[in-house]
Amino acid sequence: MTLPETMKAVVLTGHGGLDKLEWRKDVPVFRPGAGEVLIRVGASAVNNTDVNTRTGWYSKAVRGDTGSAAAEGYAGASDADGAWSGALNFPRIQGADCCDEIVAVGDGVDAARIGQRVLVRPMHRPAGADPDALVTFGSERDGGFAEYTTVADEHALRIDSPLTDIELASFPCAFSTAEGMIQRAGLGAERVLITGASGGVGSAAVQLAKRRGAHVTASTSPAKMDGLKALGADAVMDRNDVFQKEGFDVVLDLVGGPRWPELLDALVPRGRYVTSGAIAGPIVELDLRTLYLKDLALIGSTRQDPRVFTDLVSCIEAGEIHPVVVETYPLRELRAAQEAFLEKSHMGKIGIVIAG
């Protein structure tokens, strides 16, 4: 196919408020480099990390929750550490989720890949000297909030599924984060508490934990309890209620905040706590006696083994997990989509339609 010279995209021009998201029609279309593929993007989705990167919440100067200044940005957030890996180069095209078709390939990539339907792995292998660097799609490199994007060949995984692009695009970021947490915890047929269970990652964790035979307790607001039961949660609880002491083998926490010490009390001796988010605030109080007297394991989960995403694609193709898309917006209305996302009145994902 003949590629256009320019494309439509939403470009992040710096850390700050929603005004930092600019709709453009004149962004040059990428050309795939050696070992890369060019994808025509059909759909993406909104994730917490898109908002947190835009606002600069990852900066250590920010000590509050992720929502209190999410519309206007955080005063005092430093550009030097406002994203996952520190400073970002602006302008940046965000969008950690991406689904559709390979339309061109670079040198060294089999031309038979053209026409394949793919999902993009959000967590990429660092190309530089630091093997521990965080390189994520839509953050350290341009992502899916555009009509076209490029990724290394290995990160575009072929997908065979009857699901729509918008349904498939709900999986990559949220489900790989949840699957990464579960694999780090070594979760089996155990009792697990999931906080923030109605969000994209939390609702994904419910499905993925049930797939492993776990007994799942989901913490959420009353309005979202029935939805989580429908996803397979064995028990649901009001997020403001008291957690059962020593009632869980594993805690998958996306909330943090002032109630964090209660989560350690909720673990059995030798229990495992895993975190991959802190929507209620990143600064918590730790009583070291609870940690060492109960022989607890505290696990942070961001980096992912490549098998996390390959396992996820296999689950999708087998129909073992299901998309939860509650609303969709066209790309040009990304600001409105983020505003709806920040209301936290939904369960699951808000999709972004790119094509058309």
TrEMBL record:
Can you provide one Gene Ontology molecular function annotated for this UniProt record? oxidoreductase activity, acting on NAD(P)H
Answer whether the UniProt record assigns the keyword Oxidoreductase to this protein: yes
| Cross-referenced InterPro entries | ADH-like_C, ADH-like_N, ER, GroES-like_sf, NAD(P)-bd_dom_sf
Q: Which positions are tagged coiled coil?
A: none
Give the record's keywords alphabetically.
Answer: NADP, Oxidoreductase
Stored Pfam families: ADH_N, ADH_zinc_N
Q: State whether keyword NADP applies.
A: yes
**What positions does the domain Enoyl reductase (ER) occupy?**
16-352
UniProt cross-references to PANTHER family, sorted A to Z: QUINONE OXIDOREDUCTASE PIG3, QUINONE OXIDOREDUCTASE PIG3-RELATED
| Name used for this protein in its record | NADPH:quinone reductase
